[in-house]
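Workshop exercise sheet. Pairs work together: one partner reads the sequence aloud, the other fills in the structure field after running the prediction. Swap roles for the next sheet.
Pair: D.N. / O.F.
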Amino acid sequence: MEIDLEGRIVGIMGPNGAGKTTLVRIASTQLRPTSGEMRVLGYDVVEEADLLRRRISSLPQDMRPFFYTTTPREDIYHILRMRGIPAGESRRLAEETIDRLDLGRWADTRVGNLSGGNIKKYLIALSLSPPVDLYLLDEPTSGLDPVSRRKVWSLILDKAKEGAGVIVTSHLLEDLMSLSHEVVFISEGRVIDVGSPAQLVRKYVGDSEWKLVVRAGDTNEVGAGALKNALSGMEGIKWASFQDSLNVYPKDNSQLRELEDLLEGMSVRFRRVPVSLEDAYLIVVLGRDVFEAGRGS
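Structure field:
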């Protein structure tokens, strides 16, 4: 697999234990691969690890503060100086990052006295303040409130606009849907598919912007079996069964009204919901069986 990273945000998606963190750790030279080869920015992650580290910055999922008696302002500044950035530029970059992440009120507070959310923002600042070619971020916004999450993503987007690449893992699918240029689906250590969010949705869900969701118990007297039999008569309709619902996907927006008429005529209650990357994810990564009228499973 080869992915263009320059100025692009690449999201990594997969269930727990799929290998997302392992992938990021290998790509950031924190873990040696047991087999195979990986090159990042043209460097072999094993043989040329020292050269690669100068051009990347990473945020591990389990990252903890280095010290608890120093302050965010001190630590961000010293991280930049350790990378060889002149003192004046290090101060500017530190203040800029502190401001972007709304850390100013706590920038001179000892790290050990920060709240959990502010410690997370401090760690993000350590990772995003250096001007590098690639940022590797493992669950960067987990545990953050919605406002802080938006500020982090705004900074990540600006890094990409400046030409840096970003590899990010997240379980917040709405973020990856709207902000990633490409998404990688992985499961059990294997790459399942790669594409833009729109491409993956179209490939696994279809061309309609909407799905109809029938919750368990909302089929009334008809029953789920009779409903699926009726759906099988509509060419191109797809449906996927979940624990508490049946998701029905028209082949395109023009078929949506026909599908709604069918369900209403059968007195089946439903909700119209926009399709998203989550639908493709649940179908392909979690292995949900999808049935298409006229084609079987």
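Discussion prompt: The mean pLDDT is 90. What would you look at next?
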